[in-house]
Write a structure and sequence with these properties.
single chain, 49 residues, two-stranded parallel sheet, 65% helix, globular
Length: 49
């Protein structure tokens, strides 16, 4: 189950519903902004493949 820490939840909530759902389906731990950026970069990379 994915986790988004309270300190980055406001940034997470600015994303589109579809993007948030993709992130949550990945079962990731997002504890800080760096983690969020890393997950977004992974999604972009997967989309390019």
């Amino acid at each position: 189950m994915s986790y988004v820490a309270p300190q980055v939840r406001d940034k997470f909530e600015t994303l589109s519903v579809d993007l948030k759902n993709i992130i949550l389906e990945k079962n990731v731990q997002i504890n800080n902004l760096h983690d969020l950026i890393r997950v977004l970069e992974e999604i972009v990379k997967e989309g390019e493949e």
